[in-house]
Amino acid sequence: MAGWALNATLVPGQYEWFGLFRIFWDVSHRAGFWVLCLPIWLAGVANAPTMRHVFSRASRQTLAIWLAISIAVLAFVRTMPAVVRVGSLPDAICFAFLVPGFVIHALAAPGSWGDRFCEVRRLVLTAVIALTGCTLAGYVHTMLKGALFVATDPRDEILWAADAHLLGARFYEQVAAFRHSHPTLVRVLDLVYIGLIQQLWWSLFYFYGAKRLAHARPYLLAMLIVYTVGPLAYYLIPSRGPVFVHPELFLDLAVLAPDSRYLARLLLGQTALTGAGSSHPIAPFCFIAAMPSLHVAQSLVMLIGMRRSAFLCVFNGSMFLLTVVATTLLGWHYFVDDLAGVVLGFGCWCLAIGIVWQDSRADKAATSVQLRSGGIAGGSSR
Hints:
Layout: H1 2-9, H2 19-27, H3 31-46, H4 57-79, H5 89-98, H6 101-107, H7 113-146, H8 148-151, H9 156-167, H10 171-181, H11 183-194, H12 196-210, H13 213-233, H14 242-245, H15 253-256, H16 258-275, H17 294-305, H18 310-329, H19 335-381
Helix pairs in contact: 1-7, 3-12, 4-5, 4-6, 6-7, 7-13, 11-18, 13-17, 13-19, 17-18, 17-19
């Protein structure tokens, strides 16, 4: 209701309800996305209650065939960009070969065909619930973020002064000089910042492989809390971020970090249209806000939520550190935004754990009452 009310008043325009699907479509056309999907899913399988499925003969054959087809498809897409244009029929056919691998692998599980179809049904149902939850949370998040500079005035001077106090008055001039002398690192950080959405999808592959609902529940709940509490926190100190306040210090990003530069212009344009009261198509998360950094908060939740895998602990830990550096080096956030993002992420994780613990406690209490009632009834009948 909050999102609808804001959309009807402060944020005029048609919301793109299938925007997350479009984003996934765009992300999935990058070969690196699929290259990392399999090891991340296998890292989840390594933490599953049993690995019998993965080491079965049918499973190994399925994985080998799917991997060979995926490599061939990705090579074809890479070498024939004129034929496989995004949105074309060849593109849809290639995409159809890549996505169903996890469903096909579920059909190769040991047991009866009924068990296998049950596994497929669980996979599809999990994907639908996750996408629905993310879509609804994304809608509320986008509307709260879009209304930020309509309902409030930016206070970037507070955060700029805080960074100057902590890091020195010439910190962002030094950052600009550092970017100039480390162009390769800046390009890597550009990919890391833009690639957060890929990390979110990879996490779903991990939890599907692990098949441990008890581990997935606090992670998913913490992410939803970040997406709903995070935009409310924007209203404490509404701010745009260094790249929007002092663009003259970040002109080099047009060459060094083209993806971030393109996204910054897009978000700035969307924010300006909403501020002017113009109705326009609204994509998920298409507005700007700096304090706190939700990139850092989400990256921390991913690190904590998948800490049981040594491989992902190293991977997500590296991504977390690179994200903190990227947010500041590319001008998206003040350093104090990153500190606030750490506090927000850890706080949302603790809140999610508390909710899950309370639910588990309530379930155990209800089960205990039912058992006692059954015992009393049984005793009475005797």
